[in-house]
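protein-serine/threonine phosphatase
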Amino acid sequence: MGHFTTMFHGLSKSFPGRKGRKSRGCGGGREAAEAMAKDAKKNDRLLCSTGVLKSDGSSNFASVCSRRGRKGVNQDCCTVWEGFGCQEDMMFCGVFDGHGPWGHFVAKRIRESMPSTLLCNWQESLTQTSPPEPDSDSAIDRCNFNIWKRSYVKTCAVIDRELKQQRKIDAYSSGTTAVSIVRQGEMMVIANVGDSRAVLASTGDDGSLVAVQLTVDFKPNLPQECKRIVESNGRVFCLDDEPGVHRVWLPHDESPGLAMSRAFGDHCVKEFGLISVPEVTQRRITSRDHFVVLATDGVWDVMSNQEAVEIVSSTPNRADAAKCLVKWAARGWKHKRRGIAMDDISAICLFLHPSPADK
């Protein structure tokens, strides 16, 4: 209970606004969040490129790597923000996979706008929520998760709408996926739009390392996704030369052929079943949990969840974890997908506990 109250008072000082007043939007709160992001970057607490983020006194350690494929400009991008929203126990991680002619611009735009907009909506929702009765930790967890879920859903709607209104970026037939995590103390909130993926490495009952998939790959052939698209007059089918690869198509045109059923942008098919609504889940971190891998399909198209966590776990230096994973994925493209141009490959390896060397 004390933690919930501390968050409320701390954020109330950081953002403009009054408790109980309905807001028409983030307004000055979003400007404050964007200022926090700039300050975090200035103080090396926000990383948007290949590298490592480790802050003194934090149990988090993030290794990040992005590699261009053989299809042109790298349309993947990542971000890690330690001390998210000036909260010492919070971190934001996100991986974004652009597609289409303007995909790299769309991905970078969503990378820039999602954290600050989410932070603003979270604060707004927090100030409008009465703290739960301190009857149990589970009640507090449920309340906190509901706040995050509402904030994520609102954020995704807002930034997708703003993307459509952007004059400098053509998102009509270009878009991006987004998988992100907010770590808040010993709780993780995971949000996913598209077919990038989050996988947790945990210790099983027999003591072995086990890969736990935290997200759903939103492909058009999933029953609930296909049903929504078809009911919206969109079409889902595979091309003759791509058996098993289901794509989303316009009602009377052989385009755009999206291989995912949820994405930001791609406004040409937003009326035909494509959505940017995130799946939001939570997981409490335990001593059995070791790290989370957030990665684009450039990784998952050529290796299993288990292979990925074993590669990361076997890397001697945590700082090299993401680079090592990306390197092995590139090898996978060379040997398993011969004749197919290698996709962009990006990953964040977020370690959840200090290593023995840090203690």
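thats it. Residues 17-24 have pLDDT under 50 and may be disordered. The domain at 33-217+278-351 is CATH 3.60.40.10 (Phosphatase 2c; domain 1). bye
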